[in-house]
Structure formats: structure tokens, C-alpha cells
Write a structure and sequence with these properties.
mainly beta; four-stranded antiparallel beta sheet; 31 strands; globular; disordered N terminus
Length: 469
């Protein structure tokens, strides 16, 4: 709904350490064309790949581009996923792989099936290769297994909106999927069999204490620093027949038996409920506790609405109880001094769609977010890059580059996150390599829909480019 920057609907799928891709907690329909991408941390020897989203096990992260509205074999909005493999030079188009629901051998896609409308990447079977976990329809999740040749056979699960993490701390990737009833979810504990059967299933009742709210899992990360990922759950208010609007975030602590325990209701810099439309986690200050970043660029209450207090991006730092008692939350607004992009900013753009990753491999997670300048009808997008530090997220050394939403993933094995950036030209995604000196401005690869060469069985509706984490 926000990234109208090109001519095709594209998702770049990555894993950020202990974090998740942005789930649209305030109800904005980001998943109509693309997938939200959460993740688990990955460590060698734990049953998960040493490199995140490495589907073929070669040590390089792979990018996934999807369009859930593409027509496949004559079926409208059947959807596809295209894998661009990483290499020592970054992602390369050679050897790319295109997967549709029809390729899985688990039933043909129907009209509006929307394969790859949401997705995560996690090594569910513990073979050291990442697997692609993606939604189709309203209640179906497919696990497409990684292999030396890339994505291969698949299994079918029941649920929606998959999130991954290690919630019991056993070193195996787990899944959270929403249940069939409101305010419920299922925690599927790994490892999984190749038939998609988890080691154990735990039912989660997330019903809010306030009856005016509905609850939905949003992202995951080890905010308490105990070696178990915690689940962040967004409470949203439903205004009559409108979409839910995020109003609070609760932390559910990971436990050894997988029975998550309700923890604190996170607070922002003003002591009010912390929430956002797009949540990401990562260790910004390298203290062993995951931090959570949220945007408040816009809300959806029938019409697009600027949040109370204006658009902003807020960082809440993790701590042993779930939220740091030492570091106060950070709020960045249009009035913050030291930003590398000057206003006036376009409505509902400042702080949009934050992405978290370690661009310069210094061990501190960095944050990128979107801003727009100029009139709304002629807005120019820029990506603002802020560095992590022992003090938390800092404006020292802040930089910017042209383009739209970006995601971070190490595609060349140098431990520095690379940026996959929408634009600035319409219909393209540029991959800029990170490194000790920051991000390079000369693209290692430029991806377009035509360059993906999807073949005769797939056609796209020509809508605009989306790049979603």
C-alpha cells in the first residue's frame, strides 16, 4: 500500500538476526501483493544455517522476490517466488529459481490463491539449509525445503501469517502461525519432519485483557537476553468495520517448554503504549538484548491518518525484564536535528518501513528507514541510514541515498549486511553491498521484472513495485 515505486510487485525476503520483517500491525494491507518477513537468529552448529536465508547451503544469503498477484497458468493472482542466489560477488541472476504453488505437487493453485503473499525463512528440518515458509490463501502455509540445488519438495501446514524464531532456546527453528479463531496462535516447535510435522505444538491464547482490542503476533526477538526468542504481540483497536489500528505491544517470553509467558506491555519515550505499523528487531547497542524498532508513519482509520503527535520512528531497547531500565526509548520525528535529509517531508512518509541489519559488520545493528520530501503527488523518496552504537541508535555518521524501501541481507558472505533498495528508477531493485566502510553506491546487481525472465506461464498485472521485508 505504501511502496508505489515501480511496475511489479516484488518482495525481498531476508533474515535479520533475532528479528522479523515488518508485520502490518495497524491493518494496512501490505500483504496484498507481498509478504512480511520475520526471522530467527542463525548460528553455526545449532541446526540452523550459518548464513541466513541460505537455501542451497553455499554460505551466501539468497534473495527472494515474490508477486502474489501474478497470473500463473491462466489463474489470476496465483503468485510466484523467485530466488536470486548469493555469491562471493553478491547476488547473481545465473541459476535463479522460480517457484509457484503448481510446482509443489500439493494441489494446483486456484484463482486468488496468492502464493507467497506472506513468508519467512528458517531451517525447520535442521539440515543446515534455510527453508522457505510462505502463505497461500487464508489458512494454508507451505514449507518449501532447501537443498543443495535450491528449493525442492514441499509440505503443507494449516495456519496463516508465519513467524519464525527459537522460542524454547534449543537451537532449533520454530514457527508461530495464527489460529483459526481470533486472538489465538499455534507455536510449532522444531525440528520438523519433511512431511511438515513439528516436534510438538503449543496453543497460544493471546486474548487481550481489554475487550476493545484484538491481538496478533507481530515479530520475534530475544529481548530478554536469555537465549530464547520472545514473541511480540500487537493489540489493535477495531473501529466499526474498518481495519485494526495498532495501539499497544505486549511481549510474551520464550520458555524451555514453549509455553510462552505474558510479559510487559512495552512503553515508548513518553511512558505511553509502544506500537507501530511496521516492527523490526535487532541488537542496536550490542548488549545481548534484542531491540525493537517501529514506524508510526501513518494509520488507517477509514482514511489514511497521521498518528497523534505526528509521524515518527521509535526504538525500544531490550533488557532482562523485556525492556531496558537503563536506556530510554528513542523517538525520531520530522523535527529531529541532525538528519541527513531535510524537510519539509511528505505526509505519512517519515520513518516508514524501518529495516535492521549490520551494514558495516561492527557488531551493532544499524537501521534504515524511508522518508519522502515534496508534495504528496510528487514525493521523492530517500533512504536514511543510522548507525547502532553502545549508546543505542545514533545520528552520528547518518547518511542517505535515493530510492525507496530497503531490506538488509549478507549476500556475499563478508558478514556485512547488503541493501536491496527499491529504485530510484521505477521497476528496479538495486543491490548495494555493505562493508567495513559502509554501503557502496555502485550496485552489485540491478533486478527488474523483465530481468527475472519469469517464463511464459507467469504474467504480472503491471502494478507498481513493492519491496517488503
Amino acid at each position: 500500500m505504501r511502496k508505489r515505486l515501480g511496475v511489479c510487485a516484488v518482495l525481498v525476503l531476508l533474515l535479520s538476526a533475532c528479528g522479523s520483517g515488518g508485520s502490518d500491525a495497524d491493518g494496512k494491507d501490505r500483504a496484498t501483493h507481498t509478504a512480511a518477513v520475520p526471522s530467527a537468529s542463525a548460528a553455526s552448529g545449532t541446526g540452523r544455517p550459518a548464513v541466513r536465508s541460505d537455501f542451497d547451503g553455499d554460505g551466501y544469503g539468497d534473495l527472494v522476490f515474490t508477486d502474489s498477484t501474478a497470473t500463473v497458468n491462466g489463474k489470476y493472482a496465483a503468485g510466484y517466488a523467485a530466488v536470486i542466489r548469493g555469491s562471493s560477488k553478491g547476488p547473481v541472476l545465473e541459476g535463479k529459481q522460480v517457484v509457484t504453488q503448481d510446482d509443489l505437487g500439493l494441489g494446483k493453485a486456484g484463482e486468488g490463491g496468492g502464493f507467497a503473499s506472506r513468508g519467512v525463512s528458517a531451517d525447520l528440518d535442521g539440515d543446515g539449509r534455510a527453508d522457505l515458509v510462505t502463505q497461500a490463501g487464508r489458512r494454508t502455509v507451505f514449507v518449501v525445503w532447501g537443498s543443495a540445488e535450491g528449493l525442492s519438495e514441499a509440505a503443507r501446514l494449516t495456519g496463516a501469517a508465519p513467524l519464525s524464531g527459537d522460542f524454547d532456546g534449543d537451537g532449533r527453528a520454530d514457527l508461530v502461525v495464527t489460529g483459526t479463531d481470533d486472538n489465538t496462535a499455534q507455536l510449532l516447535l522444531g525440528p520438523f519432519s519433511r512431511q511438515g510435522v513439528p516436534r510438538r505444538t503449543v496453543s497460544l491464547d493471546l486474548t487481550p485483557s481489554d475487550s476493545y482490542y484484538t491481538a496478533s503476533p507481530t515479530t520475534a526477538g530475544d529481548m530478554t537476553g536469555d537465549g530464547k526468542d520472545d514473541l511480540l504481540v500487537t493489540w489493535s483497536h477495531v473501529y466499526a468495520d474498518e481495519q485494526p489500528v495498532a495501539r499497544a505491544t505486549l511481549l510474551y517470553r520464550g520458555t524451555a517448554d514453549g509455553k510462552l509467558v505474558e510479559g510487559p506491555r512495552l512503553k515508548d519515550d513518553q511512558g505511553k503504549d509502544f506500537y507501530g505499523g511496521w516492527l523490526q528487531t535487532g541488537d542496536v547497542n550490542k548488549d545481548g538484548f534484542a531491540d525493537v524498532v517501529a514506524d508510526r508513519a501513518c494509520e488507517m482509520q477509514g482514511d489514511v491518518t497521521i498518528p497523534e503527535g505526528g509521524t515518527s520512528m521509535v526504538v525500544v531497547y531490550g533488557g532482562s525484564s523485556g525492556q531496558s531500565a537503563k536506556l530510554n526509548p528513542l523517538r525520531l520525528t520530522e523535527r529531529t536535528t541532525g538528519l541527513p535529509v531535510k524537510g519539509p517531508y511528505s505526509p505519512c512518509t517519515f520513518g516508514d518501513a524501518p529495516s535492521v541489519g549490520d551494514i558495516d559488520a561492527d557488531g551493532y545493528a544499524d537501521v534504515a528507514f524511508l522518508v519522502g520530501t515534496g508534495p504528496a503527488q510528487d514525493s521523492k523518496s530517500s533512504l536514511v541510514l543510522l548507525k547502532g552504537s553502545a549508546r543505542g541508535l545514533t545520528l552520528d555518521g547518518a547518511t542517505s541515498l535515493p530510492g525507496g524501501h530497503a531490506v538488509m541481507l549478507d549476500t556475499n558472505g563478508d558478514r556485512a549486511a547488503d541493501l536491496a533498495v527499491a529504485g530510484p528508477a521505477e521497476g528496479e531493485v538495486r543491490v548495494l553491498l555493505g562493508g567495513r566502510d559502509g554501503v557502496g553506491l555502485s550496485p552489485a546487481l540491478v533486478v527488474t521484472e523483465a530481468g527475472l525472465d519469469l517464463g511464459p506461464k507467469i504474467s504480472t498485472p503491471g502494478h507498481q513495485l513493492w519491496v517488503v521485508e
